[in-house]
Write a structure and sequence with these properties.
heterodimer, A: mainly alpha, 2 domains, about 5% strand, B: about 575 residues, FAD/NAD(P)-binding domain, 7-stranded mixed beta sheet, globular
């Protein structure tokens, strides 16, 4: 087998295995989503949000009721593949947590929770940027990405997140083009 | 006399005005103001619903958390409205049409963004107002694309001033020879990084300017409007009248004369031609809701429906006298569709000014006027004409942080909640050549729910635009490199139509054989019909065009009324 043929056969194999992998994922992403799972696992979602944006000197995601937004966003505003990716991701995460620590996610300490999230962070990262784009288009964004984005949007546009986590200026009335930045000053909640 | 004839005569009398204006957007509203102020009883026909200034800006004062899905569009909305959703956000959503209700046929991708309501797209426009100059008005004559403009800058100069005086424009008296300025309200200020950029460009380049954008946002109270409150939520409608729109400025001025009649839900089906007088005698409309037709009559008609809609009304107004469409003896109606190309440039980061920030949200950025092909001796080998850059600098904030990595926990929260590095965006808005192959026409079979033929759009950028884009991207990168920026990221996405500067489908020109309108925006074929929206443009320049439309409108209104008074119409 010469080099060209060799490379060609690798290409065919990878296209083939990629296609069957996508076929499976596609099926998983397009079934009827188990929406009830969200409301039943509100506490889990709240703990996940809090792990993404924790309470520090300002309130965390849980206090900002970000889980309520996430349940709304996933059930009302995301398409079927994102609904499934998120809900299946929650189930996988709970399984993984029990498998690894013999405890549900909510019962873990902060560092154990962080280990679990890192696993799903790596899963989301596991495709190089080019494949990721195709993957995102066909299959929707992976679980960790959806969790992180909805938590961030939910927090930064909430009453508590915008007003206490960030600096919210409803009607600025003036524009100061160059102001001094004072250390510790929060960034603006809206652009 | 029979009863029915009596009723007909009475209805004809009730439906007769001095002038009819079709459309209430940025030029229709302005034509209404001019004509009403000159004493003409004026009927404005708007195909969509009424939007009362202040009252109908339902999202204007909402906090982010008051939107059900926050500031995100739902996947279903994006799938149902794949075209309009490229332009709207949950706040401006009420001022865009529904793609399902208003279909059209694309032969190549062309995103036709529309706002069918009183005020049209003047509610959601970008508010940048630049004059053209003779560099633009002479372009067609010099390089041979399109037909020569029948006017030059000196013809329009007083009308630019006139329109700017009414609008209220903030800006500086910059000395850029080919971007003439007016007497403006104080300009908004540049931030630290933008000021650094200006100085650094001066040190590194000859004949390259960086100016504050000229904005139809009021930095001072003006004619009972404004000032701007620096919320940067203009596209929801401004309860403070901080920016110019038909709703905030021109329609109230028209209404104050007592001469205005505004008829929403009036979809114009056709212009009615009177072969005896060889003039238009009126307009037939379909009520958007009841779908009943009725007729309105006037001495003069201004068509300001927006470029593609104006052409389609004319093409739908067929008679034995105008078998190819109203006033279309030239065959040019619907042709030469243009839209500035954009979506090319770069973003970059700057390491300094960590101790500086800003207060308030400025509703506009900075502008780098055209610098290519300014003289006959300094020509670019690959393309004619040119492009300007719109740019702005800001500090990275949570929406940027969310996208840039995948961290979580305390470290992530800290990055989200304190300002990150300064970043700058620089994107080109480039001229699009008039090309008869870029055109719209009416479908012979498919119709909308009002029985009107669907519009076909065939549009594609040519070699000149593509060469210009290449140059624009190189220049964006070069400017960032020379002025000390890091992490320079070029971008290139091309979605024709999304600049929302459609122009050219009923162009002005000296020769009735090759153009639709004369030097006064009067139809060559039908003297009492005037067209002053984007369709009149013989070429597009690279500047945001609405100010030019308004100047043309004011000038054409003066001409029309003079001609009426001289009994020429």
């Amino acid at each position: 087998m010469n080099r060209k043929k060799f490379i060609g056969s690798i290409a065919i194999i990878s296209v083939g295995s990629l296609a069957s992998y996508y076929g499976f994922k596609f099926f998983k992403s397009n079934g009827t989503p188990d929406i009830n799972y969200l409301e039943k696992n509100k506490a889990l979602i709240a703990d996940l949000c809090e792990a993404i944006i924790p309470k520090t000197d300002s309130p965390g995601a849980k206090m900002a009721m970000v889980h309520e937004y996430i349940i709304y966003a996933i059930s009302q505003s995301r398409d079927v593949k994102h609904k499934n990716n998120f809900i299946n991701g929650l189930k996988d995460l709970q399984d993984y947590s029990i498998g690894k620590f013999n405890l549900e996610f909510s019962k873990l300490n902060k560092s154990q929770q962080s280990d679990i999230l890192k696993h799903f962070q790596n899963k989301a990262k596991s495709y190089n940027s080019k494949v990721e784009k195709i993957q995102n288009k066909i299959l929707g964004k992976p679980f960790f990405t959806i969790l992180r984005e909805t938590t961030t949007i939910g927090y930064c546009t909430s009453v508590i997140g915008a007003q206490q986590g960030l600096a919210y200026d409803y009607v600025p009335t003036k524009f100061i083009a160059c102001s001094d930045y004072i250390k510790g000053q929060k960034s603006w909640a809206t652009k | 006399m029979s009863d029915s004839l009596n009723i007909n005569l009475k209805s004809r009398d009730q439906n007769t005005y001095d002038a009819i204006v079709i459309g209430s957007g940025i030029t229709g509203g302005y034509a209404a103001k001019e004509l009403c102020e000159k004493g003409l009883k004026t009927l404005v026909l708007e195909r969509g619903r009424d939007v009362k200034h202040g009252i109908d800006y339902t999202n204007a004062m909402k906090h982010p958390w008051e939107f059900e899905n926050r500031m995100e569009l739902t996947d279903e909305d994006k799938a149902t409205n794949p075209i309009q959703s490229l332009s709207y956000n949950p706040g401006s959503r009420p001022f865009y049409v529904n793609d399902q209700e208003h279909p059209y046929i694309q032969h190549k991708p062309f995103y036709w963004i529309r706002g069918y309501q009183v005020g049209g797209r003047s509610l959601t426009w970008g508010r940048q107002v630049y004059r053209l100059s003779d560099l633009d008005f002479e372009a067609n004559a010099k390089d041979g694309y399109g037909v020569d403009w029948p006017i030059r800058y000196k013809d329009l100069e007083p009308w630019y001033k006139y329109a700017e005086d009414f609008i209220g424009v903030s800006g500086n008296a910059d000395s850029v020879p080919h971007l003439p300025h007016g007497d403006y309200l104080p300009a908004m200020e540049m931030n630290c990084l933008e000021k650094h950029f200006v100085e650094s460009i001066k040190e590194n380049y000859d004949e390259r300017w960086v100016i504050m954008s000229r904005l139809a946002n009021l930095t001072k109270g003006y004619k009972g409007r404004g000032p701007c409150q620096y919320r940067n939520l203009c596209s929801r409608g401004c309860p403070y009248s901080g920016y110019f729109s038909s709703n905030s400025a021109s329609l109230p001025a028209a209404n104050a004369t007592g001469n205005l009649t505004l008829r929403p839900h009036a979809i114009v089906q056709e212009i009615i031609y009177d072969p005896n007088t060889r003039k238009a005698k009126g307009v037939r409309i379909i009520d958007e809701i009841t779908k009943e037709t009725s007729e309105f009559f006037a001495k003069i008609i201004f068509i300001n429906a927006s470029t593609i809609a104006t052409a389609s009304i004319l093409l739908n107004s067929k008679s034995s006298y105008f078998p190819d469409g109203f006033g279309n003896s030239s065959g040019q109606i619907g042709k030469n569709l243009m839209d500035h190309h954009k979506g090319i440039g770069a973003t970059a980061e700057y390491e300094g000014f960590k101790d500086k920030y800003y207060v308030g949200r400025r509703p506009g950025g900075i502008y780098i006027p055209r610098f290519s092909n300014l003289t006959d001796t300094n020509k670019h080998p690959d393309f004619v004409r040119g492009y300007g850059f719109q740019a702005d600098a800001e500090r990275s904030e949570w929406p940027d942080v969310m996208k840039e990595d995948d961290s979580f926990g305390d470290e992530y929260k800290n990055k989200l909640t304190v300002p990150g590095p300064w970043t700058m965006f620089m994107g080109a808005w480039g001229e699009c050549l008039p090309n008869p192959e870029n055109k719209i026409w009416l479908d012979e079979n498919k119709k909308d729910q009002w029985g009107l033929p669907l519009v076909n759009i065939q549009f594609e950028y040519g070699a000149n635009e593509m060469a210009m884009r290449k140059d624009a991207q190189l220049n964006a990168i070069d400017m960032f490199e020379k002025t000390g920026f890091k992490n320079i990221k070029p971008f290139d996405y091309l979605n024709p139509g999304t600049t929302i500067h459609e122009m050219g489908t009923a162009r002005m020109g000296n020769d009735p054989k090759t153009s639709v309108l004369n030097a006064h925006n009067q139809m060559h074929d039908v003297k009492n019909v005037f067209i002053t929206d984007g369709s009149a443009m013989a070429s597009g320049g690279c500047q945001n065009p609405s100010l030019t439309y308004m100047a043309l409108t004011a000038r054409a209104c003066q001409f029309a009324v003079d001609e009426l008074n001289k009994q020429n119409l």
